Amino acid sequence: SAALNPGERAMAIAVDEITGIAGSLKPNDRVDVLGTFESGGRTITKVILQNVTVIGVGTKVSSSENKDEAEMNMIGSMLQGAYSSVTVAVTPEEA
């Protein structure tokens, strides 16, 4: 993963195939982080962080009970570039 600069913190964000940009993120990419909220019966999306550095991506792990099937699903996810979290570098004020 990419290194943190002095004073930065690592913050992990849960993602899925859509919010994680279909598995195309990699360390050192720069991204904006958006948040979607319900307010007064409306759905609102806002920019939470701008131009933050991706320092790591986590691999999606299957919840299958069959060990062989779980291994195959994990290998398939890795080959497709799927992951369940993205870690970004933030300042204490941004965290």
Molecular structure report:
The chain has 95 residues and is mainly β. The chain has one domain. Helix content is 15%, strand content 44%. It is built from one helix and four strands, in the order E-E-E-H-E. The chain has a four-stranded antiparallel beta sheet. Strand 2 and strand 3 form a beta hairpin. The model is unreliable at 60-65 and 73-79 (pLDDT under 50).
| Helix and strand pattern | EEEHE
Number of strands: 4
The number of helical segments is 1
Radius of gyration: 16 Å
Whole-number tally of structural domains: 1
Q: What average pLDDT do the residues reach?
A: 77
Give the biggest sheet. 4 strands, antiparallel
**Helical residues, percent:** 10-25%
Portion of residues in beta strands equals 35-45%
Uncertain residue segments: 60-65, 73-79
Straight-line distance between termini: 19 Å
Secondary structural class: mainly beta
Shape: globular
- Give, in spatial order, the strands making up the sheet with the most strands: 1-4-3-2
Task: Tag the structure with descriptive keywords.
mainly beta, 95 residues, globular, 1 helix, four-stranded antiparallel sheet
Summarize the structure.
With 95 residues, the protein is mainly beta.
In terms of topology, how is this protein built?
Blueprint: E1 9-14, E2 30-39, E3 42-59, H1 67-80, E4 83-90
Antiparallel strand pairs: 1-4, 2-3, 3-4
